[in-house]
Amino acid sequence: GGAGWMLVAWYAAGFFLGSCPLAVWVGRAFLDTDVRSYGDGNPGAVNLWRAGGWRWGTLGVVLELAKSAVPTTLAASWGGMRSWPLAAMALSPVLGHAFSPWLRFRGGKAIAAVFGAWLGLLGPVGMVALAVCLGLMHAWQTSDAWTVLLGMVAFLVYLVLCGEGLPMVGTWCGCTAVLILKHRHELRKPPALRGRLPARRHS
After folding, report:
1. Is the pTM above the cut of 0.85?
2. What share of the chain is helix, strand, coil (3-state, %, to 5)?
3. pLDDT tens profile 169-181
């Protein structure tokens, strides 16, 4: 019925917004460069930062957060979405970013998009909680990919302790699956703990 088509329209809009490679477009328009030629080749805000400095990088982060947070927030406030439909809505821009048709389905690593999704679902508190979880994992070991994965595991504990229901756990599962897929090559190498003493040489 009409409600079903409305859901499809919301999901399509979320995917479309998420798929827009804003960091790439900003780099081309204002820096006359392709941000994918920097760092790890990722079409995201981190490489925009590398290409143009912290001001452009900060703009990239804000844009990538917004393209997930805004459609999710609007779906809840204007579209009246709750429960599982809202959980699916939060995933649509994350999927758009990770598998962007604009980039031949080779999108970014979706970290900022995931942060934006949780900002839309739980507000600033949820985004800060996710940042704290990732920060703790980053302080413990040196791999960025494992920081993301272990941080998401810690964030799941936070969601459960806060009494968030199954739909939020479903969103977590979808976000974590995307992050694992986008970081799969780096995750093959086990994490290295920080502060580990080097092996002593025998004289």
Report:
1. yes
2. 75, 0, 25
3. 999 999 999 999 9
